[in-house]
Amino acid sequence: MSKIKTIKPLGFPWQTQDPFLFCAYHMDYFPEGNPQMGAKPEHLRGRNIGQDFQGKDGWSMYHGQSMPGFPFHPHRGFETITINKQGVVDHTDSLGAAGRFMAGDVQWMTAGRGVQHSEMFPLLHEDKENTLEIFQIWLNLPRVSKLVEPHFKMLWKEDIPVHTHTDENGKITQVDIVAGSIEGTKALEPTPDSWAANPDNAVGVYTVKMEANSTWTLPATLSAANRSIFFYQGDSIGIEGKQIGVKSIVEAKADEDIIIKNGDKEAYFLILEGKPIGEPVVQHGPFVMNTVEEIQQTMREYGRTQFGGWPWQAREVAHPRDKGRFALHADGSEEVK
């Protein structure tokens, strides 16, 4: 039997399998910024400000009014994993936590019973482009964990384990291990209530870079797991004798080694795998629960409490231009990089 289950085209957002909900890949060639780290007036013309996803000139404002990004909004019942490959992301939330993370860093946030947060993309450079490349992955929570306390942590680039494979021709494949393990190299711990916190759930989140004409084997994992390979940059790859073009999703058997033979250009992948939660999923915008009644209850509660309100003065919060990478947690502790 073939190790490949299906091959699908990439869309937006990327279609994922249980336990994941979706993945949004953002590649924005933002222009130089103004003194407030926002977009200049000439760059805002012709855009649907507040709802700009059209990619005009190679970038979008998203829900930002003056600065690209996502001003404060609520979440409940799932987790976000934000992988930064290029650029700057400024985080603030209703717990009073904040942070700035850059290329190579990952933020893991469990929304649990409810949190508001803001994710803005400040345009730090006034004299050159401010390119941003991030993945935001939504990982579901099981019923038992839907209403846990919200929590976020940073996985800093200096600490994220990297697996490097050199094939028989000396060609290199590099795997950044955000969750899971590859050939005995294990990821950092996720947030404590995550579906990924239990190794029996075999959650894997990997970003992969393959040199041209290299060969690498994605090792087998739990037979019950779902596995998706998102081939988003490169030319073509070979799996099981099939030539697969770029911008494809390959859903593959999880309990089989998957040999990937790259073509004539560098290839980049995101790989998501894990044991499915197997529970009903009812989503209404930023809320993900198990039943319609729970969604209705969530909306009533949010209308009443605003999940603690918004303790920051602005909707679009950016940290000072000269502020480096940091994480300020709700308990007042701070990490500085």
Automatic annotation (TrEMBL):
It comes from the Bacteria. Residues 206-308 form the Pirin C-terminal domain. Pfam families: Pirin (PF02678), Pirin_C (PF05726). Residues 65-139 form the Pirin N-terminal domain. InterPro entries: Pirin (IPR012093), Pirin_C_dom (IPR008778), Pirin_N_dom (IPR003829), RmlC-like_jellyroll (IPR014710), RmlC_Cupin_sf (IPR011051). Belongs to the pirin family. This is Pirin family protein. It comes from Algoriphagus namhaensis.
